[in-house]
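This part of the workshop introduces the protein records we will be handling. A record pairs a protein's sequence with a compact description of its fold. Comparing a sequence with its tokens is the quickest way to learn the format. The record below serves as our worked example for the rest of this section:
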Amino acid sequence: MINLEKILNTVKEQGVVPLFYHDDIAVCTGVIDALYKVGIRIVEFTNRGEKAPENFSKLVQLREERWPGLLLSVGTIKNAQQAKMFIDAHTDFIICPGVIPAVAETAAAANVVWVPGCMTPTEIMMAEQYGGKLVKLFPGNLLGPSFVSAVKELFPALMFMPTGGVEVDEQNMGAWFKAGVVAVGLGSKVISKDVLANKDYDTVSTLAAKALAIVQKLR
């Protein structure tokens, strides 16, 4: 089991967390190959299709030989049953679109890190009460960097990661990091539907490398 400190350190060091879903395991493998070769070591595979459990399990099985050192998380977990299913499939941590106490409790019982999604101070308070250390701000484009600036001092023990609408450019990412986030989640801006449909893995690598370079420059 990967411990909390390792996960938080990896998120912070990498500064970006790519996320995606696809029904075809070959496409999933191609995407992770493309991310891994440019230095990505943490990926969120979202639970957004009926093949998610099967494909996630296959990715975990491939990891040791194909992507050593990669942290694989599962996202879009909305209830305790889903949480348990992916915990049994050996997810390194769980990411939610909201604050679901039953998911937090299920993760805690299995000693698995839980990352809740929040968009209000009340939700952030709930996340903290249920043991959250890293908070996903979702949808990021509706909240904006100014939200982080306003609430960060209220929650000094928490780390923040916006997801949704974050652009792969220095101005947009710079505003978020200046506000105090430790990382940004990157979905369709790196792994778009067109990219997946065309199996355009070179674009995935190019955009992921660009995002990593921006993070390093900002720091």
